[in-house]
Design a protein that fits this description.
Helix content of chain B: 25-40%
Number of domains of chain B: 3
CATH class of the largest domain in chain B: Alpha Beta
Largest sheet of chain A: 5 strands, mixed
Distance between the termini of chain B: 49 Å
Number of helices of chain B: 11
Order of helices and strands of chain B: EHEHEEEHHHHHHEEEEEEEEEHHH
Strand content of chain A: 15-25%
CATH class of the largest domain in chain A: Mainly Alpha
Structural class of chain A: alpha+beta
Shape of chain A: globular
CATH architecture of the largest domain in chain B: 2-Layer Sandwich
Strand order of the largest sheet of chain A: 2-1-5-3-4
Radius of gyration of chain B: 19 Å
Largest interface: A-B, 36 and 33 residues
Order of helices and strands of chain A: EEHEEEHHHEEHH
Number of domains of chain A: 2
Oligomer: heterodimer
Chain lengths: 176, 286
């Protein structure tokens, strides 16, 4: 039996241990927010967070998730109280067909929460600081593009998506 | 066909000793770490019925530790772990840069350095940096351990010298003394993220006071069945000043050590042209 925490709830999975995380989430736990796009780690539609880090759930056998904390789009916000990123995606038109959106949101969310990654990546890419975010870290639209580079969108267009993340950052200095 | 999870025989050792014992008993098992490559072909149904040795629970193999002589990177350290490590960022920036260009964030959070090596793709982006840093691979089996120089680990496309029952434990990279005058990494792919390399280069250059080359190391990936150091060009520039004639000739010599092919990602001609441009960029310090 594989025990894991999904969106704060302790869950157990008793099926084949090599079943993919995305299939366990969708079929066994009925969490259908994460989508399977390509099934080969290229598109990011299946992105969820494991211990706070964005991963492609189509590339993970569930046995490797024993004892791990998983967050899916279902826990990001509620209809009554949307996550700042979700609000911003609505206002900026950051979602059209919506297939890539759960992955975009989870990947952006992991990045906004992290305080260490952006500093050196900004330096490495020579980007001009644009926005102060959290405690003394800066982020730029170039950085957003880099972070979301593994999340493909085929209809909305990347500009509204980047604008959405920028809007979320401007409005909410401290992430959830 | 898809991957059928019921057909897999799964081995999940909890300790390194257990892992090596289990692997000795099941030498044909496929070792699994971050799964960023294995799971792709698994999803296509290419591994049904196989025995899988999942080593991802071996926590001690994820450590990165700096010692006096160099940095030792556990085989299970992820590309994201490498990028975050201060000593690696400071001393071996070509490697951390390469790690930041492998796949995208979600791949870097799962893919491991050991897995990257064991997978032995001709296009492995971390390989040219490891080749010029002259890394050493620590391999262990239930019976023995050995140290394999990085330039001896690959024997062909997707093939290494690792024997059945043998696992990569860590990669050791010696500190560079003196520090190089110039360091260079560049990946050329269809787009910045996710794309596999058409060519990928790493270079180190030491210049003496009078501007002569005391040492050059330059490696190319995706240009042969495995990563290649440009031995002819490296040897040629030694002791010379980098005049435009010397640079031209070094770029000519590049072809001696690589054998690019036409494939789905690029053509041999393009690869050769771009690789020469990269070497030129590196040598002329632009």
């Amino acid at each position: 039996m594989i025990k894991l925490t999904v969106n704060g709830k302790k869950r157990a999975f008793c099926g084949p241990p090599f079943k993919r995380l995305i299939d366990v989430l969708r079929e066994d736990f009925r969490l259908t927010g994460a989508k399977e796009g390509c099934g080969e780690g290229e598109c990011g539609a299946c992105a969820v967070l494991v211990e706070g880090q964005a991963v492609n759930s189509c590339l993970i056998p569930v046995c490797q998730m024993d004892g791990r904390k998983i967050e899916t789009i279902e826990a990001l916000g509620t209809v009554q109280k949307l996550h700042p990123l979700q609000e911003a995606f609505i206002e900026e038109g950051g979602a059209q067909c919506g297939i890539c959106t759960p992955g975009m949101l989870m990947t952006a969310c992991a990045w906004l929460r992290s305080h260490r990654a952006p500093k050196h990546s900004l330096r490495a890419h020579g980007a001009r600081p644009l926005l102060k975010y959290g405690r003394g870290t800066y982020r730029s639209p170039q950085d957003i593009r880099r972070v979301l580079a593994g999340n493909l969108c085929r209809c909305t267009g990347y500009q509204p998506i980047v604008n959405s993340v920028v809007r979320a950052m401007k409005r909410h200095r401290t992430p959830k | 066909m898809r991957g059928a999870p019921d057909t897999i025989i799964l081995l999940r050792p909890r300790s390194t000793r257990q892992a090596l014992e289990v692997f000795a008993q099941n030498p044909h098992a496929v070792p699994l770490a971050g799964g960023t490559d294995f799971m792709v072909s698994w999803n296509m149904g290419l591994h049904n019925g196989k025995t899988v040795l999942d080593i991802s629970a071996l926590r001690s193999w994820r450590k990165i530790s700096a010692a006096k002589t160099g940095v030792r990177i556990g085989a299970l350290a992820t590309h994201a772990d490498l990028q975050r490590h201060p000593a690696l960022r400071r001393e071996f920036s070509l490697l951390t840069e390469a790690c930041s260009e492998i796949g995208a964030a979600a791949i870097q959070n799962r893919g491991t350095l050991g897995g990257n090596i064991a997978n032995a793709s001709p296009a492995g982006d971390s390989f040219p940096p490891q080749a010029v840093y002259e890394a050493k691979v620590h391999a262990v089996s239930a019976q023995a351990r050995r140290l394999i120089p990085f330039n001896e680990i690959f024997v062909g496309v997707k093939k290494t010298v690792l024997r059945p029952g043998e696992l990569i434990e860590s990669v050791e990279i010696p500190f560079l003394k003196p520090r190089p005058s110039r360091q260079y990494f560049r990946k050329v792919g269809t787009r910045a993220a996710q794309a596999l390399s058409k060519t990928v280069a790493a270079g180190l250059l030491w210049l003496s006071r009078d501007g002569r080359v005391s040492e050059m190391r330059f490696a190319l990936g995706s240009m042969a069945t495995m990563v290649r150091r440009l031995k002819s060009a490296e040897h040629f520039v030694q002791g010379k000043k980098l005049t435009s004639e010397v640079i031209d000739h070094a770029c000519e010599l590049l072809a001696k050590d690589v054998s690019p092919i036409d494939d789905v990602r690029s053509t041999a001609q393009y690869r050769l042209k771009v690789s020469r441009n990269l070497l030129r960029e590196f040598l002329s310090g632009r």
